[in-house]
Amino acid sequence: MDLGIKGKWALVCAASKGLGKGCAKALVREGVNVVITARGDDALQATAAELRALNGGEVRAVAGDITTPEGRAAALAACPQVDILINNAGGPPPGDFREWDRAAWFKALDANMVTPIELIKATVDDMASRGFGRIVNITSGAVKAPIDTLGLSNGARSGLTGFVAGVARSNIAARGVTINGLLPGAFDTDRLRSGTHSASKKTGQAFDTLWQRRMQAVPAQRFGTADEFGDVCAFICSVQAGYLTGQNILLDGGAYPGTF
């Protein structure tokens, strides 16, 4: 299927690895020109080289912290126009809410709520003026089914989701701009492995035991891959998905037990 987005420009945040990289890869394969950004320059440049080898769209890499005004300005300046915006940021650490102070809350809100809003604000009107725009916010399955130890993430990402619910249905909807959330469950990423290693050290249980136990809790009996996550993201960005907006799409291998 031709997704109809060849030649468009995309800004993909936190794209040096994991789910952001999967989204960038899928878009490049569709002929989309991408600007990828992340804090670590070495990993970012390695990913850029990998993407360029796909012989798809143009790839530009901008190292920086997207949660800062300077980082956002640099990323936006590298993109001639933003037709597609993939908001993504690493989630805040787990823990007990009793231990989180005001600074911890504001750091989580800044990365996982305010930064995506700032990027939407910087790009959405130009998208609407051109009659095409796709904004995908990578949040978390915890927006749908909160996890008690991920309170910082639950709060910040749910705040972004509530904000988007209104904006997606404003006058931009009639001008070709869609905004949707993509909610990952358990994916085989560095973050999941890091969290499992931490749990292993804390509980004394073997990494492999915890890894297999987590996997067996997924009805699909496996973890998702970054590539398949990226493919779904690319479809949401397609011309075919122009009637899909204001939605939150859960990719979790069937782990969420509800009907709705």
From TrEMBL:
One Pfam family in the UniProt entry: adh_short
Q: Which InterPro entries match?
A: NAD(P)-bd_dom_sf, SDR, SDR_fam
Domain of life (superkingdom): Bacteria
Entry-linked PANTHER family: 3-OXOACYL-(ACYL-CARRIER-PROTEIN) REDUCTASE (PTHR42879), NADPH-DEPENDENT REDUCTASE BACG (PTHR42879:SF6)
Provide the family line: Belongs to the short-chain dehydrogenases/reductases (SDR) family.
Q: What is this protein called?
A: SDR family oxidoreductase
Q: Which organism is it from?
A: Piscinibacter terrae
